[in-house]
Amino acid sequence: MNRTLRSLLVLVIALGFASVVCLGLVFLLAGDDIVDFLRVAPARFNVFLNRDALDEPTGESTDPVRFLVANGDTPPVISQNLLGAGLINDSELFVDYVRAQSLDVELEAGVYFFSETQTIRQIALALTDSSTSQITFSILPGWRIEEVAAAIDVNPLFGFSGSEFLNVVGRGAQVDPAFAQLVGLPVGASLEGFLFPDSYSLSPDITPIGLRDVLLESFRAGLSTQVIDDIRDQGFSIFDIVTFASIVQREAVQTEEYPVIASVYRNRYDISMNLEADPTVQYPLGNASNWWPRITAADYQGVISDYNTYRINGLPPGPIASPGLRTIEATVYPDETPFFFFRADCRTDGYHDFAITFEEHLANGC
User: Fold this and answer.
1) HEC profile of 7-72
2) Below-70 pLDDT ranges, the chain
3) The pTM is what?
4) Among 12, 43, 316, 354, which is disulfide-ready with 96 (CB 3.0 to 4.6 Å)?
5) Predicted pLDDT of residue 347
């Protein structure tokens, strides 16, 4: 081997050794950074090639889809579940995107609500914070427990059915003894009347028992100590007043008439006159097709039920719906009136005409 070739060989070996040393120093100084770079390089390349697909939704439906990320779910598992739910079109692209953006270590377990209109970018970012997911749920004054259950069934965000909720609020369900004692709830009675009407922001992982407890706590928080004391001073239990108020709630349309209508029923009760409240006839007749059906004069005596206050004296066995706080307070503090009768006025405006005698009541007819 001549001197020139030997010199070139030595130079190549020297350069190779220097390269190895330099590369070693790079790995030594860069540590995990270079490893991470090499790991995500293919993912970044795939994301670059398919960048337009990152912003393409799977559909046009805005209906919320409940999506669960369980503890321990990896990005590939999450991506497959998203694909199965119809929320993304490319599971591999999703995995590469979260890796390329370093979101793979930030994905949180929890319940989320997505729609077909969201993109991979939007879904991936949302999956880093499960605390933003909430269920908005409203109960209207005058709803019976079956109507609350029906509202659960039409809300796709809940992880349980209306029938499962009825199992924990219906007759015979276990009730917190402290709450039962506070309100005077009879043994075995349902929680009809105590599912407090309001708008709620609920945890996405709420259970039937959890929802029940939220509603009962809202009821308890709504009654001041003064109202509770005044109920007892009047010789009633909270259960009695809520039963009264549920009737007022179903009869009244205009808020300002709450205390007047309450006075009518309190006046009747005080002289042991039958309450003769139409909603107490509707209640036992209600069914899934119409929980508050129209009734006829024949139903007043024809509906055989302990709730029918045309047939029974005093209060029915319990509330027929959930009254709002203003209705409860109007029942505790009714107007002082001489009225024993009322009927809808002839203006169809939601107001009523009130009367002292039955003859006056008949004269108020249209």
Assistant:
1) HHHHHHHHHHHHHHHHHHHHHHHHCHHHHHHHHHHHHHHHHHHCHHHHHCCCCCCCCCEEEEECCC
2) 1-38
3) 0.79
4) 43
5) 84
